Amino acid sequence: MAALFSFGILLVISVVVMVLATIIGLFANNIILFESIGMSIAAGCLAGHFWQIHPAFCILIGIAALFGLYNLMKTKAGVWLIGGLMSLLWGFVVAIIVYDSMGRDVIWLFVPWGLVTAGVFALHIKARNNVT
Question: For residue 117, how many C-alpha atoms fall within 13 Å in the half-sphere facing its CB?
């Protein structure tokens, strides 16, 4: 009975790892699309919050932001500007988590920030080369 239980646990863990790997792989290969979707959702929500406009117009703003950002990210200037800023943001998020969990040592702030920023920017460059 214990062997059956351990096999079941191993099977569940394997499925969870495969699903997570698929999600991370989709994000890494399509980072431009995922970030454009995220920023367009934020643009529509922030437009509705700050300007108190009709939700239908917020949806239109979000759709326009999605197409604009996606097409901008496919250009050389867009990947350097938006891709660079988003890479810094992703790196900062990871750096703050590591900094807080490692006893608030400043070295644990800057090293992960630089490494993650470089890695995410490489994903942006790779995704741009795959799109165009």
Answer: 18
- Label residue 10 by pLDDT band (50, 70, 90): confident
Supply 129's token pair. Answer: 């080369």
Domain spans in the chain, listed from the N-terminal domain onward: 36-73, 75-132
Alpha-carbon distance of 124 to 28, in angstroms, equals 9
Total-model pTM? 0.76
Task: Determine if residue 52 is left, alpha or beta; phi over 0 gives left, psi from -120 to 50 gives alpha, anything else beta.
Answer: left
The answer to whether 98 and 109 are in contact (CB under 8 A) is: yes
For the stretch 23-82, pLDDT in tens is: 777 777 788 888 899 999 999 999 999 999 999 999 999 999 999 999 998 888 988 999
Residue 26 contacts residue 123 (beta carbons within 8 Å): no
- The residue type of 35 is E
Q: Cα-Cα-Cα-Cα dihedral of 21, 32, 124, 106, to 10°?
A: -70
Spell out where the chain has E strands: none
Count helices and strands in the chain by DSSP H and E runs: 6, 0
